UniProtKB/TrEMBL annotation, chains A, B, C, D:
Signal peptide: none annotated. Keywords: Isomerase, Plasmid. Its EC number is 5.5.1.4. It comes from Runella slithyformis (strain ATCC 29530 / DSM 19594 / LMG 11500 / NCIMB 11436 / LSU 4). Residues 248-360 form the Myo-inositol-1-phosphate synthase GAPDH-like domain. This is Inositol-3-phosphate synthase.
Length: 445, 445, 445, 445
């Protein structure tokens, strides 16, 4: 049994700042508010509903995670954020069309009180969007100062003890890391010289980390995964986590691919198509934005089915991913996967999966868990990359010398064993030989 | 780093005895023979094709399992068995229709040399079958003596160093454990008094264990899971493993259900239908035989989605399983699953999975792995129930005080960590905090 | 151009009597009422929304059916009926759970005014049902007299000009035609002697036909298809139509099978499973009631893919139909069909269809169309079996010497050409050679 | 009963010329040859396997089509053609990988004797192709003269009585009709001046029609549907038919959409994706070639679900079609359709269809039927556009003032009634009132 870390208690209010207050953000906030009032259940959130096994199986200890680690409670949360539209959360939730109107009406007052601050916006990074609630400064350094002030004001106005920030905004266009991203010094120089390679999402992250506020990147944007921001996170002892919420089809892929790997089944091809009808789909209809998503989704299989290690089984997988904007579905999303596999002696089989899911419903509990776990990490003095939160990401961030882990089940074990480690509980290995050794002795002698 | 167990080397021939020499057994033997000749690849077999990660991720050590633990090689295997039809394996493989004729012809001679011994058969236990290659004694004890002689003769004739036995026969009718099964003494008394509750499969298992031959139960039959045979296994230091090969739909279920559990998604219903056209389907068309299968398949979900622990999410799952005999599919098998799930705030979603699989192709590598791992267990002096082989079973056997583990990924971790334990390698927990602690220190100070 | 029939005008009110006022009946009535108020659109009803092409293609004449033939309008309809529960239609609609609550509330008053008369009920014919709003006479003849009075009273109270009756009740147990059903005289004798082979549905049909009220049988019950009632229909100049509304999976089957037939594709098997969660599903969970449905559904394929005529293609079809009660779906219904086909040189292909449908939503417009078309038939003096309404039935009624037509497209052509015939329009054959003959002459000479 | 047309008898050999001798052409020829030898059955061919109903239902007359109309028999067919690769049909069939090797071997000699003539090829029209067996003239008129000579030589060498030509080549790039296509005179001028807008497929068609040889266009190429070639067809009394063989997903669409139309169900969206791995897929991977296919496929729904006529149901259909090159499937092809429909009161439902088909297996019988029916048309003196063959096409050709008919069932009725018309049999309208009128009279009086 290890010693547990010292973790400060989650007293006072925790402010959750959301850059991007559309479907995901409003579904998240509405769900928390409704859960507080007993109108809904926060299903899909590990922090609120999952159990964690502790000790030996025969001890039958499986508390809720929220009863095991010191997390902020739903009652302590306060919501704020930025958006390029000036709609308050009540209006935005109705426009998003995710939740039934009667539910939205029942928490109207709370939602109306959450209004967006003016956003940092750069049309080059989101071609299909256009909004009016934007900051007017054209100098990046001035924008950073505004964001720092926004953060400070929000904390004071709402009497928050601590803050976290979770990006719920759009996918930016594809771009690759440049010289300006390679160190904190160069990045700050770039801010001062208005370098066009500094994307809006990076500016939010910079302002958060500078303020010591943990930051999570929900979209596939190039943002946290640049040396400059990793450096800043360590400097200010701030946890970071990213990127790209793992929701529909990729979630399913990281469930099924580990199953094929486990049984050593070969894979010849994996064709994935996705049809969706919400604003996310509209943004991704622009090829430069789709590319960002495509790259984020594409590596998932390679990470699980290692073709270098096992070329006979996975050396030649035709992996094709398509995302199609199809308005009849609205916020619903459908994935259709066709998987061509082969088994014993090369005989071929197929798996076809049709996942009728809902984008924001799957993303909202991730926002909640990240907010609470990042706040825990901050209090436990875990700084920088939080690999133990890989579970939530399509493209988990790791140290440069490590391969990211995509297998959902290894990700979950990493998360759970990290919690056990933090609390000084024994790690679980599923070995279990001890149960049997005593028995054998009982019976035999 | 723990000390490794002393494991005797796998020298000499290993005889694999197969009660039931139909589609699964012939596909298994043909695949091993073809692999030896370089005509096919033993895909789907962990012992032959899977890698196992050892040590830290940065060590990049992932040998093949067969290069890590001392297993018998394919060249050392010899095949034999019993069947109620007198077809040799060449004839039986053609009748089964699983493999392409050209493949069967290319190894005709080897297959023709494998002929079944006369089987112990009791029509009450398999209503839809009828065969002529059966032992004629009506006294159970006399049948046992014949089986013991069969085993001994096979070992001597073929110059085997060791034997294992893997049941590849049919599903017997549903029956529950009785007094006669409750201890070895009562069981042996029942054999002498011809107790009708002793099924043919139990008689094979008794003969194997009595001879110190490890035994695996591929069908859902009540057999190994009675106190009498568990007692005998410990007495003769013999490993046992069961039951019911986890192949098509249940395999998929134990992949997907852990994924839903991981993400804390609620489940309202799971409807599974299975259409198949082989002899297995014909046997299961008899209601009493289907019941045995149904019970075996039914507990899988409860084991993963624990309704007592988490009634809001899994307290009321309508789980319905159907198996339908549908001759157009032949040995192919299709599962169609419709899963009704719910997430954040109770919103409903659906997953539909159509698995176009092949029964014997998925079962054959399991037979191989079990033969090699049970032989390993014998040499490593692991006696009785082998919970670490849960991976292969629809209904894994455990100690009475333990819940069986159905989650494929926990099963795999248990298997892998057991191998690491046997070889004195460090267990893998996926914690990985150490990678990060040094980095933080590097950068910060 | 033929002469049209003389058809009396649809003046005054048309009363629609519904034995069985559950999900289908309430969805039907609610939809008509909501359509009258402009709150909904009667989609799926040919009489309200379909067009019919008249004359040559170049004439571009395609009026709505309701503008072409003299039908009663929605405003002229009045609703009534019988049920074993005393709920009014508002209560019954809420219990059925088909329509959104806000829709039901918006027409609450109209629905509350529709209350069921006491039903004729016989538990032997519907094992899983139990109700309290039933007629207490045990003598069948007395029950008939009550029904005749109910009909007369309803007509007078509501000031109806004409009536039709559409059975929306449950599936009765399977039974076959007996001596008592073989002539009107014997049937009436049976009513007087309380013959147990006279089912409740037959008594409603007898009362309707005796009153000259057209009758349609929405369930697969043995009812109209007995000589006694056919005789009565002709005697009273009354149209009859049945049986078993063609809604989800069978509808799809009579769409796809004609397509396979058209392209001369062979069929080896057709596996259909159906999962549904409403009261209909509960009734069909009783094997004797399921049998009635199974027989009704089973003949559909044979009627389209004629194995006697073309044994190479359709001589050996494994057709299996399953209906499974699965409560999570509620009134939703899902069909999953797997169709094994073969083409050129015998090569095999598969079609898989997953139909996520809604039972009552598909049935309600059929009730409306039948009510209006049967009333038209009555006014057009078409008595007895209405084969031209085969379109609406899983098991269409025909003369004994004719094979029923199951192909949805031949059924539609029959329906449309019958309307053209009644109105003196030219029948459509899709020949169209004339368009081309003139052109050739124009160009060539 | 009408008088039949005078149709000359199909005496002597019929030569079938195939521009493009890849997967479709070899599967067609191999199937005909194997059928002649009794090794296979020409399933999927109406001319060989379908029956046609004649007269009243009670007459029970349903001969095979080939026994009803005077068609050439399989024994009379001779095969030839052109290809850019010099492989004979044996080699090409093996490369195509559609048929099992053992089948190809069993007719090796016949296939080896069919070798391609040098092709007219223009890389601008098929970017992803490259071949060496091409005519070297760069002057279009010279190429035409070579084609005319090829046709004449083939006829004489093989002793053919008549010829037909069926394009089985690739999809050319998208281009629209120009001035040069607007009349025969301008087209011939363009041939002499090497107009780049004259595609290779047009040159084959010109040569065929000039020679009085019926021509069918199996790809979606702009070819027959230009005024120049329609004029030539009438001038030489030659039938033409096109375009784009209706095989997998579009076939299914023209089966299911008429079903939705029949039942007056609304459609909000239809998403179709297609994955295929053969050379056709490779060609369509080039965007300019895909566009040709997309346009051909896109109009199918509009033709069936007429949004102008019925805007409430079909006025706003999101129809999206995708074709994806996915090598693991080889010549197999999978369509996945998701159809969003709505019924009574606007309630939504979905249909999902997964069609696991084989491209060449579905196309080959179409080639056969077109060859035989076009030869019949020629002998029956039906010149120009053959609208009665719409059944076989994704984009059926019609007179300019007519809308093409896409509904598979109207297409079939048109085809069948044309055959009845040609043979002087009564057209079938499915009215059938006469059966009932006599009965009523029998019973009533």
């Amino acid at each position: 049994m290890q010693n547990s870390r010292t973790i400060s208690a989650p007293t006072g209010k925790l402010g959750v700042l959301l850059p991007g207050m559309g479907a995901v953000a409003t579904t998240f906030a509405a769900g928390v508010i409704a859960s507080r009032k007993g109108l809904a259940h926060p299903t899909g959130s590990l922090t609120q509903t999952a159990n964690i096994r502790l000790g030996k199986r025969t001890e039958h200890r499986s508390p809720k995670i929220r009863d095991f680690v010191p997390l902020a409670s739903l009652d302590q949360l306060v919501f704020g954020g930025w958006d390029i539209y000036s709609d308050n959360m009540y209006q935005a939730a109705l426009k998003a069309g995710v939740l039934e109107r009667s539910m939205v009406e029942s928490i109207r007052e709370e939602l109306e009180n959450i209004t967006p601050m003016k956003a940092v916006f750069d049309k080059r990074y989101a071609k299909n969007l256009e909004g009016e609630n934007v900051k007017t400064h054209s100098e990046k350094w001035a924008l950073i100062e505004e964001l720092l002030t926004d953060i400070e004001n929000f904390k004071n106005t709402n009497g928050c003890d601590r803050l976290v920030m979770v990006w719920c905004g759009s996918t930016e266009i594809y771009h690759e890391a440049q010289e300006v991203h390679s160190s904190l010094a160069k990045f700050e120089e770039g801010l001062r010289t208005n370098d066009p390679d500094i994307a809006p999402s990076m500016m939010y992250a910079y302002a958060a980390l500078k303020s010591g506020v943990p930051f999570a990147m929900g979209a596939p944007n190039l943002c946290l995964d640049i040396p400059a921001l990793e450096e800043l996170a360590l400097l200010t002892n701030t946890p970071i986590a990213g990127k790209d919420f793992k929701t529909g089809q990729t979630l399913m892929k990281t469930i099924v691919a580990p199953g094929l790997r486990a049984r050593a089944l070969g894979v010849r091809g994996w064709f994935s198509t996705n049809i969706l009808g919400n604003r996310d789909g509209l943004v991704l209809d622009a090829p430069e934005n789709f590319k960002t998503k495509e790259v984020s989704k594409g590596n998932v299989l390679d990470g699980i089915l290692n073709g270098e290690q096992n070329p006979e089984l996975w050396g030649d997988i035709h992996h094709k991913v398509r995302i199609e904007y199809y308005p009849p579905l609205g916020d619903n999303k459908e994935g259709w996967d066709n998987i061509d596999i082969f088994g014993w002696m090369g005989y071929q089989m197929q798996i076809k999966i049709n996942f009728l899911c809902r984008d924001s419903i799957l993303a909202a509990p991730i926002v909640l868990d990240l907010a609470l776990f990042l706040d825990l990490a901050k209090r436990a003095e875990l700084a920088g990359i939080q690999e133990w939160l890989s579970f939530y990401w399509k493209a988990p961030q790791t140290l440069p010398e490590l391969e990211p882990i995509h297998d959902l089940f290894k990700q979950l074990e990493k998360l759970e064993n990290t919690l056990r480690y933090l609390m000084g509980e024994e790690l679980i290995t599923n070995l279990g030989m001890d149960y049997y050794q005593s028995v054998e002795e009982d019976i035999r002698y």
